[in-house]
Structure to design on (230 residues):
């Protein structure tokens, strides 16, 4: 499961998809493709975007839901918590000790 | 060569006539009975009486349903209409109960939005790039 997560995050296009879903959750495949091509000048096919979404979905970072005749993609960042649980980060309030 | 007529398949021509004229604001241009309850039904933009006609064509052919269902599932619009202000048109249509699958989205020189025409199609609204 962790391997799926790191594999999903390893690709810049997939990270861009996550960025766009952060801006607005609940997008159709068409909207995601439009954002990648118009905002990011990424000339990739719809099939390729579908494959990227499938990998993100396998990692649990993207969830799909059918609403009537439409299909929307939602962001779920909960799996990212497992990274901080594996390698705990210091609490933000804790001042970093400067090395002498 | 000019684009004189283009078409969308509609589930029900009466319903389509209502939606395309009363809700969207197009004007009916031709309405010719063709037998078997089918009509040659076209609409135009109110400020362009000689502009491109949109034919509201019955969606009875068996190939139409799987084709349109697959497009709607992925959110792909079948036609694009130009408006001066996508945001304003989005608010106006939403107040009339129109379902949008994509809210207004500014992408460089163009703003777009996508709605369901209630006749089986998704339609894209766009500003003309200047």
């Amino acid at each position: 499961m962790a391997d799926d997560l790191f594999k999903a995050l390893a690709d810049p296009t997939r990270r861009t998809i996550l960025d766009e879903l952060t801006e607005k959750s609940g997008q159709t495949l068409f909207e995601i493709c439009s954002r990648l091509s118009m905002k990011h000048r990424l000339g990739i096919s719809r099939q390729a975007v579908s494959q990227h979404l499938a990998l993100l979905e396998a990692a649990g970072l993207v969830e799909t839901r059918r609403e009537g005749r439409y299909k929307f993609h939602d962001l779920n960042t909960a799996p990212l918590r497992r990274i901080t649980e594996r390698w705990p980060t210091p609490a933000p309030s804790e001042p970093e000790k400067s090395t002498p | 060569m000019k684009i004189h007529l283009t078409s969308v398949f509609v589930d029900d021509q009466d319903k389509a006539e209502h939606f395309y004229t009363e809700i969207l604001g197009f004007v009916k241009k031709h309405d010719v009975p063709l037998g078997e309850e089918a009509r040659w039904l076209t609409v135009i933009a109110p400020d362009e009486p000689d502009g491109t006609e949109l034919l509201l064509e019955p969606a009875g052919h068996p190939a139409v349903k799987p084709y349109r269902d697959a497009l709607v599932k992925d959110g792909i619009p079948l036609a694009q209409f130009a408006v001066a202000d996508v945001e304003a048109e989005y608010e106006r249509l939403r107040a009339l109960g129109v379902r949008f699958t994509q809210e207004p989205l500014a992408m460089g020189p163009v703003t777009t939005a996508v709605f369901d025409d209630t006749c089986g199609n998704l339609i894209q609204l766009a500003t003309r790039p200047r």
The longest strand of chain A covers residues 62-67. The first helix of chain A runs from residue 2 to 9.
